[in-house]
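Summary for the steering committee. One of the milestones for this cycle was to obtain a three-dimensional model of the protein with LLP bound, which we needed before selecting residues for the alanine scan. The sequence and ligand used are listed below.
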Amino acid sequence: MNFGTRDHLDEKNGHLTIGGADVIDLTQEYGTPLYVIDEGRIRSNYRRFAAAFPDADIYYAAKANGNLAVLRVLAQEGAGADVFSDGELYAALLAGILPDRILFNGNSKTDAELRMACETGVRVSVDSLEELKNLSRIASEDNKEVEIAFRVNPDVSPATHPKIATGLAQSKFGIPHDKVLACYEEALSLEGVRPVGIHCHIGSQILELSPFAEMMIRMMDLVEGLKNKLKLELDFVDIGSGLGIPYTGTAPTPIDLANTVLPIFFERASALGIRPKLVLEPGRYIVGDTSLLLCTVNTVKEAYSTFVGVDAGFNLLLRPTMYDSYHEVIVANKLDKTSDHTYTIAGPICESGDILARDRRLPRVEKGDLIAVLDTGAYGFAMSSQYNGRTRASEVLVNEGEAELIRARESYGDLLMGQNIPPRLL
Ligand code: LLP
């Protein structure tokens, strides 16, 4: 079986293995549906990315996979974090990521979130002039000075699913690039905020390099404008991320991305006589291919298609339903059998859109077989829900063949947590 670039996957006696662990053994111990994450692969992905950008800071995008153990592994590797909410900030700090290596992003932060940013000493990516004024007020009340960047909308259109392109002119994120200088000017006049960086992120799962070059040029134009017009020399330029991974086919590597953006970054910075730090915020590249979603076949039904009904659907992996995303699917207990049947893999949710994979060539599938959905480490569990009264899956971390539970399967109690029937209804 050809696993492409996924060195952590292998075959043993017809079974799929991940990080040296047989997935059949894992499901016998932990049941299904089950998310399995390979620690070695998280570390090697991080190191590969960091090695491509030796002078940069890498802020892992915690939204991709916010499991505490995953954050802890990345903290050990030296990653900072891009957080998008108070909850992500709380988890990142708990995992040991240092506050001065955290950027608090978000287009609609609450006052409480801004206060939390002030209190914990993280930097804030400010998304609007109104947020700037609000943050200045909150920080001044607390006698704090917060280091900020502005989130720029660079108006760059990458070829990706429209729901995950974030740098288009019409996107909700950031400040139009032609209005950014005025925001810095305002920030320089306010108390409690100190502009030290500039930030953007053009989208996710981007497979071509030219939008990154376009974005880098636009960002350095702004850095130049800040230096020449406002005499402001920034400490960092954060270009977000968006590097795609090969769910199918091929994808550019971190080195390709580095070769695209670094020459522009260094040439423009040295022409200005400044040395800002480059910051990147990869999520998908670090964790995307590290994980499998394992599910059991409940039924095989001959209908319009031949539907394989499994015990995980868009409650646990929303991507195929939300973005028509392709995820490779394997019959994990039949790797030695020929793929001579065509199946559509359907989840158990009461919605026609609950299809994990369509018309895939697989070996003959029967009730009880184990289906592995590949590359589910980014935006998999992170986007899960309890829809249809389904408990969320457990997660295990595999390290050199040994598995440890890093999130327990939810109980019915978890489903009802915090709910109560008002006494008058009893
Ligand atoms: N920085 C910012 C400000 C972001 O908004 C994101 C992702 C990232 C970094 C990380 O981007 P990445 O390296 O993972 O491409 N749920 C969608 C993806 C949403 C991405 C949201 N922002 C999906 O499943 O494809």
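Key point for the committee: The CA atoms of residues 207 and 252 lie 6 Å apart.
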